[in-house]
Amino acid sequence: MAIDRTVPQWLLTPWLFGLLAVLLYANTIGNQFALDDGLVLNDNAYVLKGIAGIPDILTHDSFHGAVGETDKLSGGRYRPLSLVTLAVEVSLFGVSAAVHHGVNVLLFALTCVVLFRFLRRFIFPQHVWAAWCTTMLFTVHPIHTEVVANIKGRDELLSLLFLLLTMYHALANIMWREQRDLLLSAPTKRKKEKKERLPGEWSDVISVLFFVLALLSKENGLIFIALLPLTNYFFTPLRLPAAIRRSLPVISVVVLYLVLRVVLLGARNNAVQEVMDNPYLFASVTEKLASIAVVMLIYLKLMVWPHPLVYDYSFNQVPLHALADPLVWISLAVQVGLLVYAVIGFRRKDPLAWCILFWFGTLFLVCNLVFNVGAPLAERFLYQASVPFLIAVVIVLRRVMARLKDNTMLIPALSVLLILITTSSGYAIFLRNGDWQSGDHLFIHDVRNAPNSGRARTYAGIAYIHLSDSAATTKDKRAYADSAIVHLTVAERIHPTYMPTLLNMGLAYYRLDSIETAERWWDKARAVDPNDGKLEQLDAFLFDRYYQGGLRAGLAGDLASGRTQLEKAVKYAPLNADAWYNLGGVHYTSGDLDNARNAWAKALELNPAHAQTLQGMRALEAAGGAVAP
C-alpha cells in the first residue's frame, strides 16, 4: 500500500524493537535474585550441577531439585527447558545473577523481533503501521516486568517465543502450499516448480519442533491444541475442517507430551490445603465463580492501566466475591459480550474474534476454573495474553479511523498518544525494574500496594528480619525487628495459621531477645504443623539460648532460674548429655538429690562414658543418695 512506501525503512527493521527492549530492561542486569528464583536456580540442586544435572532436570518435576518430594504442590510442573538453559549458564558462568538476567533480557528482545515479523507477515500484511504499533505497545507494556525482571520468568519468555514461532511457521507452510498449488496449476511453470523450492516447504516440520520446545518451556502451550487450528482458519483461506487437519501434527505432540508427563511425574494432583496456595479453598461454588469473574475484569484493567504492579495477589489481597456484587455482573456482561462477538465474527473470519478467543484461551489455563494454579491472578499470566489484547486494540483503532470521514486530526492525536504511552511506560518499566533489585527490596516495596495480602505482609516481615541481621547498630537491629513484627502482626490477623507468619514472628522476637515470646509463637506453629522441618532449627536456637542462660544463671548463684532454663534446654535437645548433666548439677547444688540422680541417669543413658556425670554420681553416692544401677 502507499502508506507502506512512506514509512522510513529504519523504522521497519525488526531489530529496532529488540534494541528498544534491551534498553528498557538493561537495568535489570544489575539486580540480584528475587522471589522464587531459588526454586529454579540457587536452591535447585539439579540446576546447580550445571550440565551434569540435565538428566535429573529432564526426568523430574521442575521444583523437585529445590523442594524434593512434597504434597504441598498441586500436580506436577514439567518445564525442563528453562531449567536446562539455566543449568548451561551455571556450567559456563557459575551462578551469576547478571548473566541470568541478561539472558532474560535477550530472550524478551528476540520475542519482540519475532512478534513484529509475525504481525507484519500474517496479521497485518497490508498495514505495516498496525504491526509496528502493536509491537511497540507490547515492547513497552509494564505488565511484562515481572516476567523479564524475575529470573524464574524464563519459562514464560521461552514459551511465548516458541509459540509465536510455531504460529509463524504453521502459517508460512500453508501459504507455501497455496503458492505451490497455484504454480502447479500453471503448466508452463510446473517443471520450474519441481526444480525450485519455495520458502516455507519445511515450515510444517519447523513449526512442530518449535511447539515441542514451547511445551517443554511451560504448559501454556497446551491451549494451542485449539488455538493453532483457529489461527490457521482465521488467517488463511482454509475452511475449519482443513485448518484442523493441518494442525494434526501439533495435536499429536500434545498427546505425546501429556503421556510423557504422566510417565515421568505420574498422574499426581495433590489437594492443596493451604489457602495461600489454593485461593478458593474455602469458597463456595458460587463464590469461586463470582471471584473468577472479577479476576477477569482485573486482568482487563491491568492491560489498560498497569498500576500499581505487585508480585503477589494471594489471600486476601483479592477477596472472595458474592454473586450479588455489582462487579461480578459488570464482568459477566463484558465477558459474555466479548464471547458473543467472537461467535458472530467466527464465520466471517474476523481477526478481532480470533483475538478474543486467544485471550480467553490463554487465561482459561490460569483462572483456577479447571485446576488450582496457586494464586487468584498474577501479572505473569498476562504475558502471553497481552499479544491478542494489543492486537485487538490496534484493530479497533484502525476500524474507528476507517469509519471517520475526516481523520486528519486523529492521526496526529494518535501519534502523540503513542509517544506519551511509550515514554511513560518506558519510565514505569525503569522504575519497576528497580523494585526487583532483590527479594527483600521487592517485599518491602510491594507490601504498600498489597496491604491485604497475608503473604506480602509475611515476606515484608522476613525482609525486615534480614535487615535486622545485617544492621550495624543495636538500635537499628531492634528498629528493623520491630518493623517486622508490625507486618507479621497484620499477616497473622489475615491468616492466623500460616506457618511462615508464625515461624518468623517468633524469629523477630528472638532477635529482640524476647525468648519466651518467641517460644510462644513457635509453639503456635507447632500446633499447626508439628512436622514442619524448620521447627528443628528453631528448637536448636531455643536450646542454645536456654542452655547458655542456664549455665550463666547457675554460675551467678541463681539456681531457680538456672534450673528453669536448663529444663527448657533439655526439652528442646533431649539427646544432649551435657545439658542433662548440667541440669543434674543445678538440682544437686539445690539439694534436690532425687532429680539430680534422674538427670544424671539420663545423661549416662545417652553417654555412658560421660566423665563429669560419673563424677557427679559418685558425689551423689557419697552424699547418701541412691545410685541407679
Quickly list its features.
69% helix, mainly alpha, 629 residues, elongated, Serine Threonine Protein Phosphatase 5, Tetratricopeptide repeat
Structure commentary:
By secondary structure, this protein is mainly α. Among the domains are: 133 residues, no CATH class; 80 residues, Serine Threonine Protein Phosphatase 5, Tetratricopeptide repeat; 82 residues, Serine Threonine Protein Phosphatase 5, Tetratricopeptide repeat (Alpha Horseshoe), CATH 1.25.40.10. It is elongated. 44% of the residues are buried.
Topology, element by element:
Elements: H1 2-5, H2 15-25, H3 37-40, H4 45-48, H5 54-58, H6 64-67, H7 80-93, H8 97-123, H9 128-140, H10 145-149, H11 154-184, H12 187-195, H13 203-217, H14 224-234, H15 240-246, H16 248-265, H17 285-304, H18 326-346, H19 351-364, H20 382-403, H21 410-435, H22 439-446, H23 454-470, H24 474-494, H25 499-511, H26 515-528, H27 534-555, H28 559-572, H29 577-590, H30 593-606, H31 611-622
Helix pairs in contact: 2-8, 2-9, 8-9, 8-11, 9-20, 9-21, 11-13, 11-14, 13-16, 14-15, 14-19, 17-18, 18-19, 19-20, 22-23, 23-24, 23-25, 24-25, 25-26, 26-27, 27-28, 27-29, 28-29, 29-30, 29-31, 30-31
